[in-house]
Amino acid sequence: MQCHPIGVIHTQHHQATGTPIQPCRAVGVPGTAIIDEPYVEGLADLDGFDRIWLLFWCHQSSEPKMTVIPYRDTVPRGLFATRAPARPNPIGLSCVRLDRIQGNTLHLLDVDLLDNTPLLDIKPYVPQYDNYPVQHCGWVDHAPDPNPAADARFEKPHLD
Amino acid sequence: MQCHPIGVIHTQHHQATGTPIQPCRAVGVPGTAIIDEPYVEGLADLDGFDRIWLLFWCHQSSEPKMTVIPYRDTVPRGLFATRAPARPNPIGLSCVRLDRIQGNTLHLLDVDLLDNTPLLDIKPYVPQYDNYPVQHCGWVDHAPDPNPAADARFEKPHLD
Is the pLDDT of residue A159 over 70? Predict the structure, then answer.
């Protein structure tokens, strides 16, 4: 199960600290996805969708931790009950706005990703598949939500 | 970028043909996810969520194709404008209902996956992150939707 990038994402965020947590906290923040040549054909018909899923490799995240204190809480939680990037398979998922496509470049908005993030996949956002009403959202329903943006807690140590 | 399973999904679907297309067409269909021991600690706090994302490896899908005729249409579309499994990184994404957790076993509903699908990740479904109103949903808005379930078009050839 070997993954490889289909392109790269460029944004204004160069470190975790200060990067918005999720697209809903990055409203209007621009970014681009540059798609590698063998995959450009697969972008046909995508421009009709308002939003798209980006699946990406969390290239700056630390080793997996089964218990984490998520940004939105102050107490430890099971990793899989959070969206923290320190996962066994560090695959991130963000629903961003698709502004326009020019050749191999997707112009995006609401981008919560670090610059140079390897892109693994793009899927269209389809409300029938992705938009479910829910009654219970676990600890998130009552989270104190103390952080306006990310910090370095899940960042790979820098070797400089 | 090496992925490895954190567990395996079991369902009643043993081949693509007849498998529901997306959880919205699999309402009430049961399945289980058996989580490998090193990752069970990470399930803490997950039981409070009504729905969860499964990220999985499409282990039976054919080689990637940049142009496909998706199940819901009758004409070719760019791969990334579809949810077809024949992708460069064959990572699937399904929002299923979490019925209950017993030890290392997640009891699920609305399961649209093949039996023995390798599980890569679990994320909580959080409407604030995942539930966006959209005006335009590309070709899907006017798709003829001719297929009640999947067929073999994206299935790996069987060597028997």
Answer: no
Cα A64 from Cα B30, distance rounded (Å): 29
Q: Taking the domain A7-152, which CATH number applies? A: 2.40.30.70
Tally Cβ neighbours within 10 Å of residue A97: 22
In this prediction the pTM is 0.96
Reading the block at residue A114, the tokens are 């670090």
Provide the token pair at A53: 């899923």
ipTM reported for the complex, 2 dp: 0.95
Q: Per-residue pLDDT for B84 more than 80?
A: yes
Q: Of B8, B35, B89, B66, whose CA–CA distance to A93 is shortest?
A: B89
Contacts of A110 by beta carbon, 8 Å cutoff, 6+ apart: A23, A24, A26, A27, A28, A29, A95, A96, A97
Q: What is the CATH number of domain B7-125?
A: 2.40.30.70
Cα–Cα distance between A76 and A98 in angstroms, integer? 35
Selection from A2, A11, A92, A7 nearest residue A46 by Cα: A7
Interchain contact, B134 vs A88, CB within 8 Å: no
- Best mutation target, B74, B110, B134, B139, to test chain A (most A CBs within 10 A): B134
A38 three-class SS: helix
Contacts of A22 in chain B (CB under 8 A): 128-129
Encoded amino acid at A72, one letter: R
Average pLDDT of chain A, as a whole number? 96
What pLDDT sits at residue A120?
98
> Within chain B, what is the greatest distance between any pair of CA atoms?
47
Residue range A88-102, pLDDT digits in tens: 999 999 999 999 999
Is residue A35 within 8 Å of A121, Cβ to Cβ? no
- Cα angle vertex A46, ends A45, A51, to 5°? 145
CA distance B76 to chain A (A): 10
- Rg of chain B in Å (alpha carbons): 16
Interface touch B41/A78, C-beta < 8 Å: yes
